[in-house]
Amino acid sequence: CVRANMTTMRKRTVLKIQTNLNISNKPAEEKNAGFRANNHSIEKSKYFSNKKNKLDYVSKLISENGLQNSAVKLPKPTDEEPKMFINCNKRKACYTTVGFFSIAFVIIFLLVPTIWRYSPSIQKSMIFLNHDHMPDIQNYSYPEVYGMDGTRNFYIDTKDHITLGVWHILPRNLIEKYGKNVSSYEQLLSHGEPIIIYMHGNSGARSNDIRIELYRKLRDINCHVIAVDYRSYADSTVVELDETGIVSDVMETFKWVYKRAKGAPIFGWGHSLGTGIGAHAFSLLEKENIYPNGLILEAPFNKISEAIREYSTTKVLRYCPWFDFFIIDPVIENGMVFDTEQNLKNAKVPVLILHAKDDIIIPYQLSENLYNYITTTRNSELTELVLYDAKYEFGHQFICRDKEIEKKIEKFIQNCLK
């Protein structure tokens, strides 16, 4: 603002000087007028070649015409000018800040919820995260690449024409004798050792490092492990995902194992989203008079709606009056309910819940809510909750690193088989 005022005043000063010069030149002799005008034009073009010469030219005119003491003076800065400059900057900063927060408010509280509500594909992508594939798909056929000896890769074809990628990990006590005899793996399911069907959470595949850690712990207590990738995960058939389809994949896998187990105990282990999938699948199996021996839920939630509500990304939005309408309701309407409370309400399967208190993805309070609900509503007395203190730093994924995990699982299996 100050600079603009100074520039304007300088222009006015130059104009006034030029006017005075024109007046002072009027009495000059007529015969020299043309000569002086021509010289003045040449001198003017010479000096006006840049801004500095313009100022020098004005100073020269002032000195030549005796105008040093005239009323034409350049303005001097006053005490008010710095204050005007500061106030101008403050106003600009204020307008910028208000504009930024207004845009952020519109994006976070209006635009994002609207896009979420009316985009089922985005909802499914964020909940299932099946687009997060492992980098080298061809290695699924070679479990030894991941350090998994005594493991067979195979595929199960479901009744709705879906192909599921599966690993079968042998128990420790059978590896030495049968580990390299791949053709005998199916027959060994009826050998008598417990069989655990592993249902992973969203993202990744059966070959994730942390999942392999768990497989090794389970094989060390002489359990078969059947690790399945649902449809659209890893090398399984790619189709549109929903709860019904992904639950049917687990049911088909269980039935495949059930036919070959010939009475050997079959358990389920679900992690994160896999807990909701497993609970739903096992409750439907009971309705078909197929009874699993037990279900282990690692870092579960009671309902997917509560998991979304407690998720760190949605904390900013949860207090908005339109939160349920824009965020929760469309997920339910698009077939992603995963209501573990209702699915286990009438189920007889024994349940072991494992959860770390430092889990920031799914808070352990949701496990407590689930435990309290099913212990008061269902007939099965064998329901156990194990919470890990935050000092162990197991978080959402690393409960398998509990030094006592093998003993806990062995004890649960024994109690289920009594």
Automatic annotation (TrEMBL):
A GO cellular component annotated for this chain's UniProt record is: endoplasmic reticulum membrane
> Which UniProt keyword terms apply here?
Membrane, Transmembrane, Transmembrane helix
TM stretches of this protein: 93-116
Q: Does the keyword 4Fe-4S apply?
A: no
The highest taxon in the source lineage is Eukaryota
Q: Which GO terms describe its molecular function?
A: monoacylglycerol lipase activity; phosphatidylcholine lysophospholipase activity
Give the matching InterPro entries. AB_hydrolase_fold
Q: Which GO terms describe its biological process?
A: monoacylglycerol catabolic process; phosphatidylserine catabolic process
Keyword Membrane in record:
yes
Q: What SUPFAM superfamilies does the record point to?
A: alpha/beta-Hydrolases
Protein's name according to its UniProt entry: Monoacylglycerol lipase ABHD12
Source species, please? Answer: Schizaphis graminum
